Amino acid sequence: MKKYLAILKDGFWGGNPIFVQTLGICSALAVTTKVPNALVMGLALTAVTAVSNVVISSMRNAIPHRIRLIVEMIVIAALVILVDQLLQAFYFEMSEQLSVYVGLIITNCIILGRAEAYALQNGPVASFFDGIGNGLGYSSVLVAVAAAREILGSGTFWGMRVMPASYQPIQLMVLAPGAFIMLGLLYWAFTSSRGAQEDN
Amino acid sequence: MSKSGETFKTLAFATVISVISGAALLWAGTALKPRIDRNQKVKKYRHILSSLGIEVPKDASAKDVIEMFETKVAGERLGPIYRFVYKDDGQVKAYAYPVSGKGLWGMIYGFLAVSPDLCHVKQITFYKHQETPGLGAEIEKKWFTDQFVNKSITKNCDGNPDHIILRVRKKGTANKKFEVDGISGATMTTVAVDKFLVSDMKKMLGRAHDKPVSVPAARLAGGEAQ
Do A78 and B29 touch (CB under 8 A)? Predict the structure, then answer.
């Protein structure tokens, strides 16, 4: 169990997909204007990464090396379509707001990266935790960026007003440049705090 | 393993994985389709209702929306085209005509709601399209659609299909008195919307004096094409 916790923590912190591996930046910028959107996007990606890791890991000894990437893409694509359809059936409004970005989970390098770097070498259970850890690492960054952008850009959190009525929202935070600035600041905070830890 | 043996194994594996994922998606698609179709229908109803000026509460359930639509909206066919009618106390308040055409990436569908004399625009909405998010997809945003509200359709409201003055122009070049600003960075979408709106408004005006045939609104809303 301890081993799995370590895998989980490594995906979340030590090997955080966004801050350490610098993967999945595109969607981290696109869907972070509101916290609920970021959370659903993060959960969708976590689910896809975990399941694709398990599926690919269970087949790792059977997959012919030559077509390994194609097989990984088929598995990931099928899972993403499934998630997209489930959202459309059960969370229609959310899927409307996330629009094309759900489909674009396919192109999120985190999933293929974990399949290649982890699932092909490790067992299904460890791969599952690796997927969850990486997914949560991605989600937490998304939610953090979204929280900062929503509070500063709209004066709300989860759609509820948190800033005083006199607060003048910073329009820039809702636009793309706001996402770059916020992500950059968080990146800086993360790497400097981790650097301090490593120095010890 | 021999070379041909390995090739066979690769082919067999590829076939099996394709069949399995294909079957899984087919099953999921069939199982979820009724729900997705219903969600899409409700979305379309919402658009028709709000374009006609009937307020739909944000938290209205799917059932509420369907009921509102079925009790408040009537359908009429005029030759090849059709429209949705909102009557209050027996008085026609607005008509909503379906509008559609080719966008940059795929078909764009919407509703153009007009005053009973076909003189002014009440509201326009787009409910289905595949335009680029942040660019062409801005057509569904309030800032874009609000520009159409209360604009005249023809010169001096004469109803002549050749006198249509409501156009979508390149951003910054529109005469705001009767034209509408397009979207910067999405010229193709802007031109496409202008083109199909003019053609659909022509059809609408051309059939202004036809005798309408009453058809249940829900049946008209079932189809996408005109």
Answer: no
Q: What is the pLDDT of residues B115-159, one digit of tens each?
A: 999 999 999 999 999 998 778 999 999 999 999 999 999 998 998
Q: How far is A25 from chain B (nearest CA, A)?
A: 17
**Helix A68-90 / helix B3-51 crossing angle, nearest 10 deg:** 20
pLDDT value at B226 more than 50 = no
Rounded CA gap, A108 and A45, in Å? 9
**3-state SS of chain B?**
CCHHHHHHHHHHHHHHHHHHHHHHHHHHHHHHHHHHHHHHHHHHHHHHHHHCCCCCCCCCCHHHHHHHHHHHEEEEEECCEEEEEEEECCEEEEEEEEEEEECCCCEEEEEEEECCCCCEEEEEEEEECCCCCCCHHHHHCHHHHHHHCCCECEHHHCCCHHHECCCEECCCCCCCCCCEECCCCCHHHHHHHHHHHHHHHHHHHHCCCCCCEEECHHHHHCCCCC
User: Does pTM surpass 0.90?
Assistant: no
Query: pLDDT tens digit string along B41-63?
Result: 999 999 999 999 999 998 888 99
Domain spans of chain B, in order of start: 73-218
If you measure CA to CA, which chain B residue comes closest to A61? Answer: B13
What is the distance in angstroms between the Cα of B120 and the nearest Cα belonging to chain A? 30
User: Between A and B, how many residue pairs show a Cβ–Cβ distance under 8 A?
Assistant: 50
Q: Residue A134 corresponds to which tokens in the numbers above?
A: 């990486």
**Interchain contact, B13 vs A81, CB within 8 Å:** no
Instruction: Tally Cβ neighbours within 10 Å of residue B113.
Output: 26
Cβ separation A88–B36 shorter than 8 A: yes
Residues of chain A with pLDDT below 50 are: none
ipTM of the complex: 0.79
- Residue B158, Cβ neighbours under 10 Å: how many? 11
**Dist. CA B91–CA B89, nearest whole Å:** 5
CB B139 within 8 A of CB B183: yes
- Tokens 């930046």 locate to A25
**Which amino acid is residue B167, in one-letter code?**
R
Residue B44: count other Cβ atoms within 10 Å of its Cβ. Answer: 21
**Integer Rg of chain B from CA:** 22
